[in-house]
Structure to design on (229 residues):
C-alpha cells in the first residue's frame, strides 16, 4: 500500500474543521461527539483507553476528554498541521495527539472505545483501515463510526474531492457484521439537497442536525461492539 502522493494534508485543505475554539465547530460534528460521550458514560465501568481516528484539529478528542476526565484519549490524523493545531488549542492532561498517515499500524487490542467519524470514505483502502481499527479494539470494546449515506447523498450525483465512496446502510451493516455486533444506529442531516438529489451546500438549521434513531440520514452513525474472532 502506498500513501497517495497528491493528497493535500494541510490543515486548510477544506477537508477538516479548523476552529480553534469548540464553539467555532459546526453543530453536526459536535452532535456526533455528544453521542460518543453519552455512550461512553453508559459503559464507563470498563472503558479507559479511547482512540479518535482522523481527529483533525483535535476538537472532538478535546470534547470527549473534557467530559470524561478519568479516561485517556488519543487522537490521530494524517495532517501534521492539524495535529500541531490540536496540541496548541485542544490539549488536556488526559489526551494526546499524533500525526499518522494511513497506512499505519495500531496497537493490537489496545482500546476499549474508538470513534471514527467521517473517515473511512477518505481512504482508498478502506477495508485495510477498518481492519486496523478492528484489530486495535479489545473484545467487547465499542466502535462508533459515521459515514456519508449513498442512498441520500449519492457520490455519483455529488462527486466529492476528498471521498472515494459513500455507503448504503446495507453496505455498512455488511462491513460491520464481520467483527462487530450492532448495538444501535442513527441518521443525521446537514445540507439542503434539491429535488434531483444535488447538494446545494446550504446548511439546514442547527436544530435539525440532531440524530434520529434507526432512520437513514445524509450521514449514518453506527454503534457496534467488538466480538471475538
Amino acid at each position: 500500500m502506498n500513501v497517495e502522493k497528491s493528497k493535500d494534508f494541510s490543515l486548510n485543505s477544506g477537508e477538516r474543521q479548523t476552529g480553534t475554539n469548540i464553539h467555532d465547530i459546526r453543530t453536526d460534528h459536535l452532535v456526533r461527539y455528544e453521542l460518543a460521550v453519552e455512550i461512553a458514560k453508559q459503559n464507563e465501568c470498563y472503558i479507559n483507553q479511547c482512540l479518535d481516528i482522523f481527529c483533525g484539529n483535535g476538537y472532538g478528542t478535546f470534547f470527549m476528554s473534557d467530559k470524561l476526565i478519568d479516561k485517556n484519549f488519543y487522537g490521530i490524523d494524517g495532517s501534521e498541521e492539524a495535529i500541531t493545531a490540536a496540541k496548541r488549542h485542544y490539549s488536556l492532561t488526559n489526551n494526546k495527539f499524533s500525526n499518522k498517515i494511513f497506512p499505519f499500524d495500531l496497537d493490537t487490542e489496545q482500546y476499549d472505545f474508538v470513534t471514527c467519524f467521517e473517515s473511512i470514505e477518505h481512504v482508498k483502502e478502506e477495508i485495510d483501515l477498518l481492519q486496523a481499527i478492528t484489530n486495535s479494539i479489545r473484545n467487547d470494546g465499542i466502535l462508533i463510526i459515521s459515514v456519508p449515506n449513498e442512498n441520500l447523498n449519492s457520490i455519483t450525483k455529488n462527486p466529492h474531492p476528498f471521498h472515494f465512496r459513500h455507503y448504503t446502510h446495507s453496505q455498512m451493516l455488511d462491513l460491520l457484521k464481520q467483527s462487530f455486533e450492532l448495538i444501535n444506529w442513527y441518521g443525521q442531516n446537514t445540507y439542503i439537497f434539491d429535488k434531483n438529489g444535488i447538494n446545494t451546500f446550504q446548511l439546514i438549521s442547527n436544530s435539525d442536525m440532531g440524530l434520529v434513531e434507526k432512520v437513514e440520514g445524509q450521514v449514518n452513525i453506527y454503534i457496534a461492539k467488538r466480538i471475538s474472532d
The mean pLDDT is 95. Helices lie at 27-42, 59-67, 80-89, 126-136, 169-177. The first strand starts at residue 49 and ends at 53. The first helix runs from residue 27 to 42.
